[in-house]
Structure formats: C-alpha cells, structure tokens
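Model the whole thing, not chain by chain.
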Amino acid sequence: MKLDRNNILTALFILAIFVFFWYGNHNFTAYSIRIWETTAIFLMLAASYNLINGVTGQFSLEPNGFVAIGAYVAAILTLTPAQKEAMFIIEPMVPWLAHLHMSFLPALIIAGVVTAIVGFLLGFPVFRVRGDYLAIVTLGFGLTIRVVSNNTITITNGALGLKGIASYTNIWWCLGWAVVSMIVIMRIVDSAFGRAMKAIRDDEDAAIAMGINTLWIKQAAFVTAAFFEGVGGGLLAHLITTISPTMFTFFLTFQLLIIIVVGGLGSMTGTAIATILVIWGNELLRVVEQPMNIFGLHIPGIPGMRMVIFSVLLIVIMIFAREGIMGQKEFSWDWLFSKLKGRGNNA
Amino acid sequence: MNSTVILQQLVNGISLGSLYGLVAIGYTMVYGVIRLINFAHGDIMMVGMYFAFTGVAMMFMPWWAAFLLSMIATALLGVIIDRIAYKPLRNASRISALITAIGVSFFLENLFLVVYGGVPKAFPVPSVFGGAINIHGVIFPNIAIITPIVAMIFLGILLVLLHKTKYGMAMRALSLDMETVRIMGVNVDLIISLVFAIGSFLAALGGIFWAMRYPAINPLIGIMPGLKAFAAAVLGGIGSVAGAAVGGFIIGISEILIVALFPALAGYKDAFAFLFLIFVLLFKPTGIMGEDLERGRF
C-alpha cells in the first residue's frame, strides 16, 4: 500500500473512529455501547451481503443461514466441556465436539472458515440458476439450516439452543472486525475481481462473452461474504450469549436487505451510512411500541409496529427512491477534494 | 405397514397436495404475466384465513357466507397490493419488484401480528367439515375428501375460463408478449388485476381449507405452505396452471409418504420440499409441464 494522501486520510479516519469509541467506551451508557456493537456487526454483515447482491448483482437471501452456521460453530468451540455436558440434556453431544475448547479469536476464524466452506459447496448448485430462482433457492437454504439445527440434537442441542456462551464480544472486537471486513471488501471491489463482479451484475451474458468465468467470480464473492457472515455470527453469539434455531430467521436477512437497499445496492459507503441509520432508527422507533402520553391523551404501545413501519419503508424506497442513498457511487477522498476545490472555483 | 394405512396416507397426501396446488396456481399465473415471484402470496393465504376467522368467530356469520366473503375480500386485497406496490415497478428491474414483494410479505405478516397478536387462534371448523367417514376400516376425515373435490372444481372452472373466454385468451396472450397485447387494444392493467384477483381468491380458498385441516392459525402461518406451493409451481413448470396442480400433488403426497415411511426423518419434513426444488432446478429447470423459463405460459 502506497503512503499517499488518500491512504493516510483513510488511516486517520479509522484512527478517529477508534479514538471516538475509546472515549465513548468510558462515557457512553452501556445501552448505547451495546447498540454501537450491534451496528458494527451489522455493518460487517451488510457489507458482505452487498458484495453478493449489490456488487455482483446476484440476488440471494442466504445471510441468516450463514450467520447461524457461524454462530453455532463459534459457540460450540468456546463453550467449555463442563458447560456442554451440563447443557446437552436431551442427548449428549458427539464426543469429538464435546471436548473441543478454544479461545475467542481462533473460534471466530474457524467459524468464518467453516461458513466459507459451506458457502463454497452451496455455490455450485445455487449458481446454476439466476435471478428470482436464486433468491428462492437461497431462501430455502436458510430455512434448511434452521430445520437442521433443530434436528441435529447431538451437535446443536436442538430447539433448546446453547446457553451461557462467554460474552467475549466487546466494542473493540466488533469495530476491529468491521474495519477489517470493510477494508477487505473495498479492496476486492476495487480489484480486477471487483470489476468482473460488476460486469456480471451489468450484463452476465456479455461478461461470459468477454471471457469472465462467471461461476468462479460469483463463488469468490459468495465465499468472501460467507466468511465474514460466519465471523459476524460468532460475534453475535458471544454478544447475546444465548443462541437457538429460532434466532436466525428470515427476519435477519430482511434487516440486512433493508440496509443495503437504503444505502444503495452496490455502494459500501451507502451500506455504512444505512447501517447506522437503520440500527439506530430501529432503536429510536421503540417509542411507537411503548405507551405514551401526549397532552393527557393516552396512546397504548403497539408491539410489532416497528416492523410494519420498516416494511412500508422498504416498499416506499423501492417505489420512489430505488437508488437508495448512494446509488452505486462510493465516497472517495478525491471526490471530496474536487468538491471542495470546485466550490472554491465557482464562488 | 399395511395397505389400509398406505391408502389413508395417500388420501391425506392428495388432500394436502390439492391445497399446495391451489396456492401454487397464484404463483404460476402472476409469474406468467408479469414475471414476478409474488413473495407475499403465502401471506395472502394467511390473510384469507384471518378474514374467514373474523367472519365466523368474531362477526358470527354463517360459515359459507364468511368463507365466500373472505375469498372475495382477499381477491380485492391482491388487486390492491398489485396496484399500490407492484404496478409502479412494472418497468423496473425484476430484482426491484422482488424486493418490494418481500416488503409486502413482511408488511402483511407484521400488520396481522399487530392487529390479531401472535397467539395462535383456534379456527372454527364448521361441522360439515369436521367429521370422518369409515369405509371398510379406513377412516377418512371429511375434510380430506372434500378438499380435493373443491380444488378440482375450481381448477376446472379456471381452465375453462383460461381457454374458453376472451379474458382467458388475453391472459394467455399477456404471458407471451405484453406490449403486443397492449397494442391490440386489450386493457392490460385490467387483465393483470384479474390475474391477481384469481390467484388471491384461490389462495384464500386454499388458506381456509388449510385452517380447517390444521385449525390453529397465526400471522406467520402462510410462510411455509407458501414456499412449498412455490416449490410445487416450479416443479410443475412455472407458468403452467395444470403443472401447478400436478406439482402440488407431487409435493403433498411425497411429503406425507416420506413422513409415513421414514418416521425418523419427520423433523426434516419442511426442508424436504426445498431439496426437491433445488433438485428440480438443477436437472429440469423448466419443470414437468413448463416451457422455457423466459417464455412461460398457462
């Protein structure tokens, strides 16, 4: 990496984020720190989801399946043998897993790698279809993962789920992984791989005619995304400390879908902005679910109203503002400086 | 396992399959005319159940009136959804329309969660559908016999409508070339509305019979049958109405038989339809009775 202006500015920007949270870690409420942690994890999930859906243009609905795999793998690896023995009351755990125990970082990486391998194997059948069919097949995959995790009782403890997972995840883990994933994904988007991905998005037949091996490019996007979604699942498991098959429903995918649509399909900057908007908006909208008093008028809280608002939001965005916040554009320092200069010239 | 049990399971499977078939017709017709997988179709089925529930259990209507009103109201809802959410996206990319359909699906689910709550409601089953008859030691629940008969009657009406009337001709023409049909002076928007109305009407019918078969309804109940019906539509060849019915029977019967023959796999029942779907897409992407995917027709 060259030590030019843009890279220095990016490094300074990342440093500023860390300084902000170093300050925040001591001064913000535990509640807002928790939401920032969620935001960072969702940023990683949404950015990798956008790599498939936005950059490569392959509309898939798999994230909840990948996140579930990552969460289960990481949780099984960090739970102590004693905990596992106490928890698996329906049937004991298979022996080769029951005695495994490791620290957080290797567990996360293995979670990512296992998910990436699953993604790689899944890619071969699902990328034989395109468009709407890919969406349905990947949706089916997510459901299948849930059914499997419900039924493989000797590995996942079935519907009871896993409890007492150590809460290793803190703001630094989340930020660190979010930054790493953003850098990796942005580098991929800017590389020859990324250009091939965009070519597939814009016209797959033309891309094939240009000699692009579309299956491998799609696989590259899919496996990268699977790795980070797996790691994100591991982070989530160690943030919430309890996981069960019902946690990783299509709702998770729906949230990520809203994020990447709001931000603009194909724009990582847009994803970052939208993640903050959606996750924080989701928290602020809790107001509508709580009873409130406006000028003596009592309005009972309506549980579930947030999701109604979010789904209407998604429909409205699709009808009126399909480009999202950033469209397919990215923020770049060059753009910022040319804007600044341009304004100076015009004035 | 003796022949009585197998016969009984078969009747069960045919009854379940005709429900999948009814819902699959909506998927296949909508896909045929506007090339959209109507993600919300399973939820439209759920809405049909709740409308009927509201009519019978909360407004104390006679069951036939409530069922009929529910089907008509659901048909109207289907048309309204198309007009508000899908019509503005007719010329947008197919992915945009699909994302919108996912939004509509979530909207319906959460709206009904807000209105009716998440606690399952007991669906009131009219006594006509409640009993069972015993033929030579084999017990057939009435509902298992009535369902396929009703489904067949409506399928027959639909096929006549499609092949013997001008509206049906317009629908079939629309699935081949929308622009030409428009130039020929056909009111395309009206025909598309009609397709949504028919699909939603049949989804409500399927939903009501589903609710009488499994009489505990909740706002998320439409997801699974909806997805399996979609698998049935693809299996039968998306775009083909008769194919959707055949696909529904295949999915329904094999689901019941697999559970009956291999009880150990019962937990994986819901994943099975998808493995089936993936398998079909890999080896016969046009389904059993389908045309080329890009040129589906009824």
